[in-house]
Structures are given as structure tokens and as C-alpha cells.
Amino acid sequence: MRMVDLIEKKRDGKALTTEEIQFVIDGYTKGAIPDYQMSAFAMAVFFQDMNEQERADLTMAMVQSGDTIDLSAIEGIKVDKHSTGGVGDTTTLVLGPLVASLGVPVAKMSGRGLGHTGGTIDKLESISGFHVEISNDEFIQLVNEHKLAVIGQSGNLTPADKKLYALRDVTGTVNSIPLIASSIMSKKIAAGADAICLDVKTGAGAFMKTIEGSRELAQAMVNIGNSVGRKTMAVISDMSQPLGFAVGNALEVREAIDTLRGVGPEDLTELCLTLGSHMVVLAEKASSLEEARQLLLESIKTGKAIEKFKTFLRAQGGDDSIVDDPSKLPQAPFTIELPAKEDGYVSEIVADEIGIAAMLLGAGRATKESTIDLSVGIVLHKKIGDKVKKGESLLTIHANQENVVEVKQKLYSNIKISKEKIEAPILIHEEITL
Ligand code: URA
Ligand code: CA
């Protein structure tokens, strides 16, 4: 086989065979196929797309390019959740303990954040003593014992995806449904999930800005998962504004604690209940979504969910007293309000720009090497549709310095107030199954 022939075949809109796709991914991973040929190939896929079989083949070729995690020693159906991007997305922190409290095993491999989207590990590391540097054996033992553990990304998982994603980033080929879908799904499958619950964001802060694009991406991932034997479903949720109120690491831990206690923001709570119900059903711990939701609500009400969070923190060295006393979490020395400049209704809170503002405060990494300040961030007081009076605070900035002029300017230019009444955006657009 010759790479140039396969590039031409795809360029001319023909479908590649399983063996041909394996040849491309295997050759690229090993370095036998150079970046310039792979760039041409990615561009051909970008314009010609891939059929369902090719997408599944590409996903599995990337899974097989490196190590895979064997979670078979964990009892029960391992359900993984994945949210595509998002700003101030605290769902993983809430969902882990919440579904684990119903006996669903959650074996979470997680990463640190890059850019304006926070990583779950960064958030958890704002808890004194908590660490994710555990061995695979310890990880499996913790999940069997407590139904929940988080481990850092380790080993050589989907090296083909790592290499290809970096190449796509500089060749204008990121925004391709088959390439995004196979990239995300290969990582979930390599990490050992039996079933996968996807949270595909839509709107200004999301990867996909339109509902049509999000639906297409969600359907592509659902099809791939199910065609390779992983029960997969997707929810399309709003990311036109940040989820919940808090954006920033320790601030989001506080928000997760509130939500696990049943006093969290309405949108975050609702999304967690929706995703959680699907996870519980996928794990066969309830026979219907309604039953699953009732069980989750009960777990919040009785304190089972928050107790599970404490147990999980202790098991990984974390100080669980922060749950009852969140003032022990890292706190920024300065809190600065952002008063509304006029009366009206909040009509826009551009999610990714709010994320970038939090990053400028020090909450996110501009480059992989940046160190982050776990205490800083933004807490919204108003969301889209809320009425606001001139002078009333729109949000609180938690900063490590007094001068936040630049951040304030960015926030003002990305929060719009309208004279007319505005409806709150729809939170859950669609639920997509096979
Ligand atoms: N996230 C991924 O992991 N891969 C993509 O291609 C896009 C977003
Ligand atoms: Ca949040």
C-alpha cells in the first residue's frame, strides 16, 4: 500500500477499507508516514467526509495505536461521561459522587485544563492533599471499594490521536465531524468505558456553535460507540452562557458541593440530573429515566451524595473537612464586583469570553507550562433572562491583585443588557440515541 494512493482515493471521494485506514494510522503513529502526507489526508477527509464504517474504523485504529486500559477487574458496567468543551462546566465533579452513590462504578481518567476550559484534576487539586498520582491497581481497588476514583492520564493512550490532533490544529482541519468524533471516542474507548454518556455542548462557548452542527457531531459519536459495542447516547446542552455561576477551580468545587447538597444553581443541577439519569440507566441500576432521576434526587436529599464525595476525597488523600467548611478552600485575596451600567434584562453572557477572562485572572493555562492560581475566577450573580438594575452587581471577580481593569473591560464587552424582556435559553436541546 502507498499513502499517496490513499490520499488520492479519499480526495476523489471514495471510501477507504478497514485495512487502508489501519495502514494510515499505524504508519503515521510509527513515523513512517510524514506530517505532510497526513496533512493532505486530513484535508481530504475534511472535504470528502467519511461514511459510518470508515469513522468506526478510524476510531478503532486510533484506539489500537497505543495502550488500552483494562477495567475488567471492576465489577459492574463502567459508564463514562464526556463533555465536549464548555466553560465553568462543573458536571464531572457533581456526577462522579452522585451516580457512585447509587452503586454505578465511575473509573475516571481525567486531564488538566488547557486554555479557557478547566480540567477536572485542577479543580480537585484545589483540595488540600488530594492527588491523582495513584497506580492502576490502586485505582481499580478504589473503584471497587468506593465506586469512584480519579486518575491522571498516564501511559501511552491513543498516541495517533495526540499526533493527529496537534497536526489538525495547525492545518485547518480541526473542525471536521469524522475527525472530532473519532478523536473523542477513541480516547473514551481506550480508557476502558463499557458505556458512554456524551454531553455535547452547543452555543457561543462550545465547539459547535449551532444546534445542527452539535446534532451531527452527537449522532456521529453515538453511531461510532454503538457500532463498536459500547452503548452510547448523547445529550445536547446549552453553552451559550457558562454553566452554573462559578468559573474557576476552587470556586467550582464550592459550586459542586452546593449542588451535591441540593442547593446548587438550577441549570447545573438539571443538567447533572439529566446526564446522571442516563448514566444510571446505562449502568443498569434503574430501568427507566424517571426511576433513575428519583433515585438521584433521593441521594441528594438524604445526604448520600455529599457523603460519597467526602469518602472519595479522603480515599485519595484529600481534606474532606472542606465540604462542611468551604472557607478552607484556596481563597483569592481580592473580591471585586462588576456593577451593571444600566437597567434591563441580561441578554448575552458570551461563555468562551468569560472563560478567557477567568484565564486572564490566572484560573486557566495559556500554555501547557503555565501554573495556575486555583483560588481565582468569576462568580456570576445574573444569567441570561435575569432582570438587573443599574448599579447592581452582575458578578464577583475573585482576583490575586487589585488591578483588574483589563478583565473588567472584557467582561463588560461580553455581557449584554437589553431593554426588552429576554427568555432564558433552553438548557437541554435534545437527547440522541442510536
Ligand atoms: N476534542 C478532542 O478530543 N478532539 C477533537 O478533535 C476535538 C475536540
Ligand atoms: Ca460552573
TrEMBL record:
Domain of life: Bacteria
A Pfam family recorded for this sequence: Glycos_transf_3
A GO term, aspect molecular function: thymidine phosphorylase activity
PROSITE patterns: THYMID_PHOSPHORYLASE
GO-annotated biological processes: pyrimidine nucleobase metabolic process; pyrimidine nucleoside metabolic process
Gene3D superfamilies recorded: Nucleoside phosphorylase/phosphoribosyltransferase catalytic domain, Pyrimidine nucleoside phosphorylase-like, C-terminal domain, Transferase, Pyrimidine Nucleoside Phosphorylase, Chain C
Catalysed reactions listed for this entry: uridine + phosphate = alpha-D-ribose 1-phosphate + uracil; thymidine + phosphate = 2-deoxy-alpha-D-ribose 1-phosphate + thymine; 2'-deoxyuridine + phosphate = 2-deoxy-alpha-D-ribose 1-phosphate + uracil
InterPro entries: Glycosyl_Trfase_fam3 (IPR000312), Glycosyl_Trfase_fam3_N_dom (IPR017459), Glycosyl_Trfase_fam3_N_dom_sf (IPR036320), Nuc_phospho_transferase (IPR035902), PYNP-like_C_sf (IPR036566), PYNP_C (IPR013102), Pyrmidine_PPas_bac/euk (IPR018090), Pyrmidine_PPase_CS (IPR017872)
Cofactor: K(+)
Physiological role: Catalyzes phosphorolysis of the pyrimidine nucleosides uridine, thymidine and 2'-deoxyuridine with the formation of the corresponding pyrimidine base and ribose-1-phosphate.
Known partners and oligomeric status: Homodimer.
NCBIfam families: PRK05820.1, PRK06078.1, Y_phosphoryl
Annotated family: Belongs to the thymidine/pyrimidine-nucleoside phosphorylase family.
Protein's recorded name: Pyrimidine-nucleoside phosphorylase
